[in-house]
Design goal:
34% of the residues lie in helices and 26% in strands. With 690 residues, it is α+β, with helices and mostly antiparallel strands. It has a nine-stranded antiparallel beta sheet, with no helix packed on it. A six-stranded mixed beta sheet has the order 26-31-30-27-28-29. Helix 4 runs antiparallel to helix 5 and helix 9 packs across helix 11. It starts with a helix and ends with a helix.
Length: 690
């Protein structure tokens, strides 16, 4: 048989026909929307198997500008056809979100070792497939880690009362990450990892930037006052990482990604070290099993116009949560984890599923407004006459059996930050939070919602009494009165409004103490009460320092050089002028609306020492320029690299856009924040006239 194969190959060679050689190649970096699976090289053509990926019902497209580029010579080999798709046409994604096809290229000559695959009509670096190794088969991916199993079940079920003292909170603590990005590709133009954490006690974000070396390694410490899921980004890739204060976690991730449940996720992640590693491994181990309890995004977003359908879908989601609770109660006792690790796993899994219920409720309530474009080009919210209000007692009914596992659970702080964000804006807590923080209502002003700075307490009624009324109302609807979520959100709002944001009032310390005194009788969780008291101490210290200073008023602003070299370089050409730095992206709807909202203001101040600088990542420059030109936007335009953007984000803790920075003529940063800043009350005129 061996001699027969040799003879066949010899005859084929003599006749000038060489059998096609197929390989599943090693690939350094797969693009965002498509990936290479196989390459078959023959005399006449080179065939490349690809997988297109996107959310079900969305589309992908590759056109005739696609080429293979030889890394060694730079020579291009153009696509000449396709099977399973038509070049240039949209390919709509089926239910599984993946579509297989084959691209046919000009033949690659013998000796070509590495090629890149580029769609030349697409300017995005992240849509290039880098490093297709034609002489190296794809390395097997690391095996998925799993948690060791116990011979005898050990877990009595979740008990939130174990965490009422909140001993997992460690103010001022840090954690250490020793990271590695496999298949790191410097050609993508990034060399840092951006890590975003969320301090839920104080409603603040912490952004850390870590440098990546040539091997893809990075090392950093991150501020971490309590266990939580961090968000990591490197280039266009995103990942979640659970971390506990004091831990040193060895973490390996990859540029290679897969498409799961509507999101791109790392093809693999590896963990080692501390309690954090066990929780991360367990979360990933259970992810596929728990996904069956989650509805696809498109299922519930397509019914938001129909209240009855929304309620039916909510009931279906609630049943899924109950199913997941049963599954977790069966599986978790068998995992070789500590009591706290098991409780964290239970909480994070449950809240991730419950988030769908909160998201759907929020999206439905948003239907009360229609977003319309005014003649001036501003986006405003107007009442939707077709909206059918749904009382929160109706929407939240039928969940009393499990909602306490989320709303009355201190460990909810340790999962995705967005769960608490959704609760904060839900009808269950929103007004109560504002009353606790001294803001007691909202009303539409010039198309946007603004707080009413008045009290709604009646004669003979204390603020504490009013807060208890909210608790009682929630008790009737959900069976929960003063619960952890209520206490967290009310203390969070109070501390952030005064201590973190620097509330502008005649006597902020006195006002803060008055509000805190109303709130403290309602707070039973130790760390929440301590955080309010710490806020008083901080404000008292700042007040004392100001009083002890010279007669010259204290200046809390910062100079540009003290904050960010990136920002200094951005505003360098505009010294001696008032500068508003608007950090945005073309894909961000609120960013575009905000730019349109100040369009007339920019024109009005065009002959004065005032400049608006629109700052965006250079990866989106083409789209940004097109939109700015189409809308006649005046102002300076600056595009920064991915690394520079990450460092700017770290300097100002930018975890979301739009984000504004206002700079006085002398270089002082007089204000900053997300969303955009206000120029009302003659503020801009005063700065320009200084």
């Amino acid at each position: 048989m061996k001699h027969l194969k040799t003879l066949v190959v010899l005859i084929a060679t003599i006749s000038g026909v060489v059998a096609a050689r197929a390989i599943v190649p090693q690939v350094d970096y797969q693009a965002r929307w498509y990936s290479v699976n196989e390459v078959e090289m023959g005399n006449d053509v080179t065939r490349v198997g690809v997988t297109l990926t996107n959310q079900p019902g969305y589309w992908c497209r590759l056109d005739s500008s696609t080429v293979l580029v030889d890394r060694a010579t730079g020579k291009e080999y153009v696509v000449i056809g396709a099977e399973g798709m038509t070049l240039g046409d949209k390919v709509w994604m089926p239910a599984e979100g993946r579509y297989e096809a084959t691209l046919i290229f000009e033949p690659l000559p013998e000796g070509v070792k590495v090629v890149d695959m580029i769609e030349k009509s697409n300017p995005e670096q992240t849509d290039v497939i880098y490093g297709i190794h034609l002489t190296k088969e794809r390395d097997p991916r690391p095996q998925k880690q799993s948690v060791p199993m116990l011979d005898v079940p050990a877990w009595d079920g979740f008990n939130a009362d174990l965490y009422r003292d909140m001993d997992f909170v460690s103010p001022g603590a840090t954690a250490h990450i020793i990271g590695k990005i496999d298949n790191y590709v410097p050609q993508l133009g990034y060399s840092v990892v951006k890590i975003i954490g969320h301090d839920q006690l104080n409603l603040t974000d912490n952004v850390t930037v870590a440098d990546i070396d040539s091997t893809g390694a990075f090392v950093t410490d991150v501020p971490l006052s309590h266990p939580q899921k961090l968000q990591l980004s490197y280039g266009d890739r995103y990942a979640s990482l659970f971390l506990m204060p004091g831990d040193t976690l060895r973490y390996t991730t990859t540029t290679l990604q897969e498409y799961k449940d509507g999101d791109r996720v790392p093809a693999y992640s590896l963990y080692d070290g501390g309690e954090s590693a066990g929780v991360n491994i367990a979360v990933e181990s259970l992810a596929d099993s728990l996904s069956r309890y989650k509805l696809r995004y498109g299922v519930w977003t397509g019914i938001l116009e129909q209240p009855d359908s929304v309620l039916a879908c909510k009931d279906r989601m609630a049943d899924n949560v109950r199913g997941a609770i049963g599954y977790l109660n069966r599986v978790i006792p068998m995992l070789d984890l500590s009591q706290r690790q098991k409780d964290l796993l239970f909480t994070m899994s449950l809240t991730d599923l419950f988030l769908q219920i909160e998201d759907m409720g929020m999206r439905y309530r948003d239907k009360i407004y229609d977003h319309v474009m005014s003649e001036e080009g501003n986006v405003k919210r107007e009442g939707n006459p077709d909206f059918m209000a749904m009382g929160d007692s109706v929407y939240y009914s039928g969940m009393q059996d499990f909602i306490g596992l989320i709303y009355d659970n201190p460990l909810v702080m340790c999962g995705e930050w967005i769960v608490i964000n959704r609760a904060a804006f839900s009808p269950m807590f929103r007004t109560q939070n504002m009353v606790a923080g001294g803001v007691v209502g909202i009303e539409p002003v010039n198309g946007t919602l603004q707080a009413i700075e008045e009290t709604l307490v009646g004669d003979g009624e204390s603020r504490t009494d009013r807060l208890r009324i909210f608790d009682e109302r929630r008790r009737k609807i959900l069976g929960l009165g003063s619960c952890f979520m209520s206490e967290l959100l009310t203390t969070q709002y109070l501390v952030h409004r005064f201590v973190v944001s620097g509330e502008d009032s005649v006597n902020p310390l006195e006002e803060y103490c008055e509000l805190a005194s109303c709130l403290m009788p309602l707070v039973s969780h130790k760390a929440l009460a301590r955080n309010v008291i710490d806020g008083i101490a901080k404000m008292a210290l700042e007040t004392g320092m100001k009083n002890a200073s010279s007669a010259t008023p204290a200046d809390d602003s910062r100079s540009i050089a003290d904050v960010s070299e990136v920002l200094a370089n951005i505003v360098e050409p505009y010294k001696g002028e008032v500068v508003y730095v608007d950090i945005w992206a073309f894909w961000c709807g609120p960013c575009r609306s905000g730019i349109l909202a100040i369009k007339d203001l920019v024109k009005e101040y065009s002959d004065k020492p005032f400049k608006v600088v629109y700052v965006a990542e250079d990866t989106g420059k083409v789209q940004c320029e097109r939109w700015l030109d189409e809308n006649g936007i005046e102002g300076e335009r600056v595009y920064v690299s991915t690394d520079a953007y990450a460092r700017l984000s770290s300097d100002f803790n930018i975890s979301g856009i739009p984000f504004g920075i206002l700079i006085a003529k002398d270089g002082r940063i007089v204000d900053e924040g997300h969303v955009r800043l206000s120029f009302d009350g003659g503020r801009l005129e005063r700065l320009v006239s200084e």
